Amino acid sequence: DGTGGALILQRICQKYESLLNNETxxxxxxxxxxxxxxxxxxxxxxxxAIEQWKHRFQHVEPLDMPVLxxxxxxxxxxxxxxxKEDFGKIKKYxxxxxxxxxxxxxxxxxLVLSRxxxxxxxxxxxxxxxxxxxxxxxxxxxxxxxxxxFFPEHLLSADIPLKELYGYIKSFxxxxxxxxxxxxxxxxxxxxxxxIQFYYNFYSFKADLSLFGQASQMKVYHPLFLEDQVHLxxxxxxxxxxxxxxxxxxxxxxxxxxx
Length: 259
Prior knowledge:
This protein has helices spanning 2-20, 34-43, 47-57, 84-97, 101-116, 162-176, 184-190, and strands at 75-82, 123-130, 144-151, 197-203, 208-211, 214-217, 229-237, 240-248. It starts with a helix and ends in an 11-residue tail after the last strand. Strand 5 (208-211) and strand 6 (214-217) form a beta hairpin. By secondary structure, it is of the alpha+beta class. Strands 1-8-7-4 form a 4-stranded mixed beta sheet. A two-stranded antiparallel sheet has the order 2-3. 13% of the residues are buried.
């Protein structure tokens, strides 16, 4: 994950510096990643969780939409930066509604997809969920898992007040409790097969590093490895808000979705 990547860079530089200066490596030992694996084995895929997810998936249908014929398959990345004054209005609206920026754009994404794909049933958008456990803030590893987020068809109707959808989205993770721990393997077994999968990721990671005694920042690059996935990345940094849509042209046509 982002923190793990930053820690690797920092520790390589610390080790290199100590070798140059013939000093003892001063890197602080962190909790072993094995503890996180043991945590996963304890909480993931218990029988009660699997039964609840089976019930939730009963009414789920895959999202899909027509694709314009393309001469060449290629990965697409479209970015849209929100003006500072507009971002200020968005933050004010969130305060009025008791929302966070990630929850607002997750709501908008679900509403737009339900219209674009003409959904007439519940559908899923996948979301990475941060999972660093206590005392592991300085540990190197991948500390997140993928969570299927349900958008219920009855709350996406035009005649349902938005506040009802907001309320559902705000309480979704809390309502899962420990049932949120469902592995990728079990998801692949339980979720209906689909031609494309949609992902939502809010990204506010900021890595301020000290490399060779100088303050540095790590810039994150999202690889364009997409085949059958469509990703909406929402990132913030101080007064900047950027929307980034990633997809493969052979599997998805965006029809100016970000606009």
